[in-house]
Design a protein that fits this description.
alpha+beta; seven-stranded mixed β-sheet; five-stranded mixed β-barrel; 24 helices; 49% helix; globular
Length: 720
C-alpha cells in the first residue's frame, strides 16, 4: 500500500488506492516542538548592535544613519509587497530590520541632541565651577574607603535642569554623575537640590554628559512627589523589620526583594560576585517573575476574572517599580520579568521571543544608552535563555527524576540556562569563567523564592503590625543565610574561577564553545552510553589537561616566598623554617590571609611586619595571628590612621607577644634567607637602622631585605 496522505486536520488519510481512512492519534505521543519565532528577534539584535556601535557618534551622523535605514526599510517593504498572491519574506525581514535600526539610532540621535543643548558641555570641557539645580534620579550609593586616609564617597545621578556659571544662567536637561560626600547620602528619590560643583567632561558614549565634584552641601529646594514619598514607607518598614537579624540576612533580604543593598556587608558582596550570585542582590527579572507569579494564584483564589487579571498584574508591577525605584535597571528588569513570566506559561509560550524582541527595541528607544549596558545585556540574555532552554531541558530532566521531585525540574534548570547564556558577558566583566557559578546557582535556586516572597510579606506586614513583622523576618532570613553560606563557600574554593581572555575575542570564543557543547551534547551523550569505558578515559584525559595541578599540589614543598591573594592590599609570606614564616602586611580580610597561611602550613610567625596602618594592609591581622604563635610584631613609625593603629595595638595587647611590639624605626633588619643556609636553620644577619627606608633584592634563589642606615649607598646584606 502506498503511503497515506493526511488531510489538513490530520484526522483522516487517503491511502494509495484512494480510500479515506480514519487516523487515530495516540494521546501519549509527544507533540513536535514548535519552532521558535525569530522573525522579530533577529532585527532587534541588529538594531541593538547598531545602537551600540553608533552611540558615541554626533547627533548629525546618527540622524543620517537613521535616514538611510528608513529609506532601506521603505524600499524593502515596497519590494516585498504582495504580487500575484505572493510575498517575498526576505525583503520584508530586511525592511523590518531597517525599521528597527532607524527607530533605535534615530531615538539615540534625538536624546543626544536634547542633552547637548545648552552650555553644560562647554563648561565641563573647561572644568568650570558652576551652580547646578536638578532632580535626584538615582539612589545615593556609598563607596566605602579602604585606605583609611580618605572619607567615604557618595555617588548619585542628577538630572540637571539649570546651570549658572561664568556670568550666565541657562536651562538644560542633562544627566550628570555627582561625586559627593556624606552630606549627600540622605537625599531621597526625586528631591530637587542645588549645589556648587566643579564639572568634568565625560566620554561621548557615557550615559551622563559630565561628572560633577561637589564643593558645597546640597540645598534641598523640594522633596519628591507623593508617589515617591509613599514608595519610601515600605522600604523603610522592610529595613526596620530586618533590624536585629544576622548581618548577612539583614543585608541580603532587602537586596533580593527591592534591590536595596545599603546594608549588605562588603565581604558578602565580594563573595557573591566571585560565585556568580550578584544578580540576586539586585532587582532583576527573576524578582518580577516571582512576584507576579505569586500574585496569579491569589487572583484565581479571589475569583478575579481572566479579563481583569492583566490590569491587576499591571498595577502590581507599577507598585513594585515605584518601591524599587524606577531607575533604568528596574524598568529593564520589570520588562524582562514580565516577558519571562509570559514565557513560562504554556498558553503564551510562543509569544515569548517576539515579546522579548519588542521589549529590547522599546527599551533602546526609551534609553539608547542601554545598548552598552552590561546589566541590560545580562538581563536580556538571561531572559532569552529562559525562553529557549527551560522548557526542553526541564522536560528532559523531569523524565529522569523521581515523580515526587519532578516539580523541581524547572526551578533547577532556570539558573543553569541563565548562567549558560550570560557567561560570555561575565567574561568581559571579570576575565574569569566561573566553575562554581552553576553549582552555586543550583544550590540557591530553591531558596530565592522563599526569601523574595517572605521579604515581601514582611514588608507589607511591617506597614500594619511592625512588631509581628520583626519576628516574622526570620522566615526569609533563614533561607537568606543559606544563600550567604553558599556564597562564602564558593568564594573560598581555589578552583572556583578559570582565567579567560577579557576581550571581545574571548567572549566570542566562549560563546562559540558553549554553542558547540549545546549542539554536540546529544551526540556525546549517545556515544558515552554506547562506549562507557572510552568515554570515561576521554573525560579523565580532558580533566587532566584542563585542570592545572597547582590548585591540587599547592604549595610546592620547597616554597620560599608567597604573595597571598587577598584582593586589594598585600600579604607577603617568607619561609623561615618548617612551620615558620615571616608575614609582611596582612591584607584587608582576616579570613583570606588565615586561609593562605593555613594552606602554607604556617603555625609560627617569627615576625609580622606592618608597613603602614591602612585598612588594606592591617585589617587581616586578626586572622593572621589566630591560632598561631607570634614572636615579634614590627609596625610603621607613622601612627596613621589612628583608628587602625589603635586596633592593631589592641590585638597586640591581647596576644602573647605584647612585649615584643617594635617600631620599624628601631627594628633589626638586613634579614636574609637562602635555601640550605640561613633559610632552613633560622640564622640571620642583623643590623641597626635609624630610618625606615627599606630596600630588597632576590639574588638567585635567596631573598634579602635591608633598611637604609641613613646613607644612599646602603646595600643589602648578602653574607650567609
Amino acid at each position: 500500500m502506498a503511503r497515506a496522505r493526511c488531510t489538513v486536520d490530520g484526522r483522516a488519510a487517503v491511502d494509495g488506492n484512494g480510500h479515506v481512512r480514519q487516523v487515530v492519534i495516540d494521546p501519549r505521543r509527544p507533540k513536535a516542538p514548535r519552532a521558535s519565532d525569530l522573525r522579530l528577534l533577529i532585527p532587534a539584535v541588529v538594531a541593538w548592535a547598531a545602537g551600540a556601535v553608533t552611540l558615541g557618534l554626533t547627533p548629525a551622523v546618527k540622524t543620517a544613519i537613521a535616514a538611510v535605514a528608513t529609506v532601506v526599510a521603505a524600499l524593502s517593504v515596497w519590494r516585498g509587497r504582495p504580487r500575484h498572491g505572493r510575498t517575498s519574506r526576505a525583503w520584508l525581514r530586511l525592511g523590518l530590520g531597517g525599521g528597527c535600526v532607524a527607530l533605535v539610532v534615530g531615538a539615540s540621535a534625538g536624546a543626544d541632541a536634547v542633552r547637548r543643548t545648552g552650555p553644560l558641555l562647554a563648561l565641563a570641557a573647561d572644568h568650570a565651577v558652576v551652580t547646578v539645580t536638578g532632580v535626584v534620579v538615582g539612589e545615593p550609593v556609598v563607596a566605602k574607603s579602604t585606605g583609611g586616609m580618605s572619607a567615604d564617597k557618595v555617588f548619585l545621578r542628577l538630572r540637571v535642569d539649570a546651570v549658572t556659571g561664568r556670568g550666565r544662567s541657562a536651562s538644560v536637561r542633562a544627566p550628570v554623575l555627582v561625586v559627593a560626600d556624606h552630606r549627600w547620602r540622605d537625599l531621597g528619590w526625586h528631591d530637587r537640590v542645588s549645589a556648587q560643583v566643579r564639572l568634568a567632561a565625560a566620554d561621548p558614549s557615557d550615559d551622563v554628559v559630565a561628572s560633577a565634584r561637589v564643593l558645597s552641601a546640597p540645598v534641598v529646594e523640594g522633596r519628591g512627589g507623593w508617589a515617591y514619598a509613599w514608595a519610601e514607607r515600605p522600604r523603610s518598614a522592610l529595613r526596620a523589620a530586618m533590624t536585629g537579624l544576622p548581618t548577612d540576612a539583614a543585608g541580603l533580604v532587602p537586596g533580593l526583594v527591592i534591590g536595596d543593598t545599603s546594608r549588605s556587608p562588603p565581604q558578602l558582596s565580594a563573595d557573591m560576585r566571585a560565585t556568580g550570585l550578584t544578580h540576586l542582590a539586585a532587582v532583576s527579572g527573576a524578582n518580577v517573575s516571582i512576584t507576579l507569579g505569586a500574585v496569579l494564584p491569589v487572583l484565581r483564589l479571589l475569583g478575579v476574572r481572566r479579563r481583569w487579571r492583566p490590569a491587576v498584574l499591571g498595577a502590581v508591577l507599577v507598585a513594585f517599580v515605584l518601591v524599587a525605584r524606577p531607575e533604568p535597571s528596574v524598568l529593564r528588569a520589570a520588562a524582562m520579568g514580565a516577558i519571562g513570566l509570559l514565557g513560562l506559561r504554556n498558553s503564551r509560550r510562543a509569544a515569548g521571543l517576539p515579546a522579548l524582541a519588542g521589549a529590547v527595541v522599546a527599551l533602546l528607544v526609551v534609553d539608547p544608552w542601554l545598548a552598552r549596558s552590561y546589566g541590560f545585556a545580562l538581563s536580556t540574555l538571561a531572559t532569552l535563555g529562559l525562553l529557549m532552554f527551560v522548557r526542553p531541558w526541564s522536560s528532559w530532566l523531569r523524565r529522569r527524576m523521581p515523580r515526587r521531585l519532578s516539580g523541581l525540574a524547572e526551578a533547577l534548570v532556570i539558573p543553569v540556562a541563565a548562567q549558560v547564556m550570560c557567561a560570555p558577558v561575565i567574561v568581559l566583566l571579570s576575565g574569569m569563567v566561573s566553575l562554581v557559578g552553576i553549582p552555586a546557582n543550583l544550590l540557591v535556586a530553591p531558596l530565592v523564592a522563599p526569601v523574595t516572597l517572605g521579604g515581601i510579606g514582611c514588608m507589607l506586614g511591617a506597614l500594619v503590625w511592625p512588631a509581628l513583622a520583626h519576628h516574622a523576618a526570620w522566615l526569609p532570613a533563614i533561607p537568606a543565610l543559606g544563600i550567604a553560606a553558599v556564597a562564602h563557600w564558593g568564594a573560598d574554593r581555589s578552583w572556583a574561577n578559570v582565567p579567560w581572555p577579557k576581550s571581545a575575542l574571548g567572549a566570542v570564543a566562549l560563546a562559540g564553545l558553549t554553542l558547540g557543547v549545546l549542539v554536540a551534547a546529544p551526540r556525546i551523550a549517545y556515544a558515552a552510553r554506547r562506549r562507557p569505558v572510552t568515554a570515561a578515559a576521554v573525560s579523565a584525559m580532558a580533566l587532566a589537561l584542563s585542570v592545572p595541578t597547582t590548585p591540587v599540589l599547592w604549595p610546592a614543598a620547597s616554597w620560599e616566598f608567597v604573595a597571598c591573594d587577598v584582593g586589594q592590599g598585600d600579604a607577603l609570606v617568607l619561609h623561615s623554617g618548617p612551620g615558620h614564616a615571616v608575614l609582611v602586611d596582612a591584607g584587608p580580610d582576616s579570613r583570606l590571609v588565615d586561609h593562605c597561611l593555613s594552606r602554607l602550613g604556617v603555625a609560627v610567625l617569627d615576625a609580622v611586619v606592618l608597613t603602614h596602618f591602612h585598612a588594606d594592609h592591617v585589617d587581616g591581622l586578626a586572622g593572621a595571628v589566630s591560632g598561631r604563635r607570634v614572636t615579634r610584631l614590627l609596625v610603621s613609625p607613622v601612627p596613621e590612621p589612628a583608628d587602625r593603629e589603635a586596633e592593631v595595638r589592641r590585638l597586640a595587647g591581647r596576644a602573647a607577644y605584647r612585649s615584643r611590639w617594635s617600631r620599624l624605626a628601631s627594628a633589626s633588619c638586613g634579614v636574609k634567607w637562602r635555601p640550605g643556609c640561613g633559610g632552613r636553620s633560622g640564622r640571620s644577619t642583623r643590623g641597626r637602622c635609624p630610618t625606615t627606608r627599606a630596600s630588597s633584592s632576590m639574588p638567585g634563589s635567596g631573598i634579602s631585605t635591608s633598611c637604609s642606615p641613613g646613607t644612599s649607598n646602603a646595600r643589602p646584606d648578602r653574607r650567609c
